[in-house]
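User: Please predict the structure of the protein below. I'd like the answer in C-alpha cell form so I can feed it into my own downstream comparison script.

Assistant: Understood. Taking the following sequence of 384 residues as input:
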Amino acid sequence: MLNINPILRPASLMLGAAALAFASPPALAQQGAGSLASADAAFATFTPKADANTDSIDYSIWTEAMRNLVVSMGPSLRQGAPRPAQGFGSRRVYGHVSRYRLEGTRIMFSFLDSDVIATFGEYRRDLEQTADKVDIQSLRRNEQLAYWINLHNVALVEQIANNWPVRQPREIMLDGVPLDEAKFITVEGIAMSLKDIRTRIVYRNWKDPRVIYGFWRGDIGGPSIQREAFNADNVNRLLERGAQEFVNSLRGTQKSGNTLQVSSIYKEAAPFYFGDFNADLRAHLARFANEEVGEILRETSRIEPSISEYDIADLAGGVREPTYTYIENADTGTVQSFRIPQSMQRLLAAREEKFRRILKEGRTGTVTFSNINLPGASASKEVE
C-alpha cells in the first residue's frame, strides 16, 4: 500500500538535538569569503581536512520522510514503456508518457500540503546551520560526503515541492536563474547552487565516480533518489546500489549501431572522472554492467552522451489532472477509498504488472544488510 499522507516533522526536531550535541562552532569562512579572489578559491574552504574527527550527524528523520514519499518503480527491464492511452473522455494524455516512466524512483509531490512543504525549507536551513555548529571539513570523509549529498537532495526536493505542478524541474527559475545554478543554499557564509555542490565540492574532492549516483536531479532521466538518507555507514552501499541500477537501465545505457549511447549526466562529470571519455567511462560502466550491458560495451566502439529525459520524477507527471478515480485498500481490515488521478492509477497498475512479470520470470533481486558487520567486512569503508 502506498502511504499518501506523508508527514515530515518540524525541522527543529530533525537536526536540533544532533547538532547541539557537538562542540562550539568553528570560525570557518564566516568572515572574509568575499575577499577571496574567485568562486573556486572560496569553495576551497570545503576541502576535507587530514585530521578527521568521529562526530556524526543524524539524518534519521529524512529517512523517515523518504520512506513515506518515495515510490520505487523497480529494476529496469531494459524495455521502453509503450505510450499510455488517452484519459477517459479526453483526447489529452495526462501523466507520464516517457518510455523511461517504469524505471527509477518517484516522489509523491502531488499529495503534499503546504505544511509539509514548509518543513522541507526548514530542514534545508537546519542542514545549512549545522555547518555553523560542526566543522564539516574535519568529519570523516564518508560523513562529509553524506552531508553534501543530503543537503543537495533536500534542497532540490524543497524547490520542486514549492513550484509543483511543473512538468520539468529545469523550467524552475529562482530570481531569473535556472534552479540548478541558482545560489539559494548558504553554508559557512558561502552562497552555492546545486551544481556547485556537485562540481565544486564533491567531484573536486572525491576520486570515486560512484558519487555521481548520489545526486538526485529531480527528473526521470537521472539517478534514483534513495528511500533512505545517506550517512557515514551506508554511503558505500547506497552509491553502489545507485550505480548498478542506473548503469543497467535504459536511461543510463543504450546501443545504436556501433555507438554506446549514455546518459548526458556523464558530460558534467567527465572533467573530474573521465579524462579519456571513451576509455575511462567504459571501464567505469563495465564495473557495474550486467550481462546485457556488458555485451553492449563489447559490441560498440564509440560513446555518445545523448540520453536525456527531463520530465519530473513524480507520480503525476507534473500536472493536476481533472479526472480522478477511486482505488480501494483493504490491508487494514476495513475498505478505504483513495481518490487519485486516472493517469496515476494507470502508472501504478503498469508498475504492479512489471513486478508480477519480474516474479514470474524468476529474476533475482538483492538482499541488503544494514547496521551489521559481516565477517571480514568493514562497515564504514571510506569513499575515496
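That's the full C-alpha cell string. Residues 11-251+309-360 form one domain.
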